Amino acid sequence: MTNPVPLREGLFRETAAGPTLLASCCTACGHTSYPPAPRCLDCGREAQEPVELGSDGELLCATVVHMGNHRYPPGYTVGYVTMPHGVRVFAQLAISAGEDLPAPGTPMTLEIVPMWREQEQDVLAYRFVPAPGKESAHA
């Protein structure tokens, strides 16, 4: 068995507190970008510092994709999740087939899981799962 590889280096990591997304924050204007950017997407400056977004967010919207691709059959769910610093992350959502889409405002939790296999290795990526027992991070 081989070690899993991340979808892309520098997007996420596991910490003692759980998984977190890695972003960048401009030291000049305070704009936070995900994925991390070498230059601020707001003011254009290169003064960026790394910031962890954590694992808790709030669902902005979700939809079911009815057209499959080479990794996922039709019927998978994607959505935007609002994270700390106002960052909106587009990601796959772990929703069971036939289950209703979670409503906007639903608390969501990040998980890092093997999403597919490539060249005989598991590829780690992130997705969000509903966390109805948690308080909204943006309430």
From TrEMBL:
Domain ChsH2 rubredoxin-like zinc ribbon residue range list: 20-46
Pfam families, A to Z: zf-ChsH2
Segments forming a coiled coil: none
UniProt xrefs under InterPro entries: ChsH2_Znr, NA-bd_OB-fold, Thioester_dehydratase-like
PANTHER family: BLR3430 PROTEIN
Protein known as: ChsH2 rubredoxin-like zinc ribbon domain-containing protein
Native organism: Nocardioides cremeus
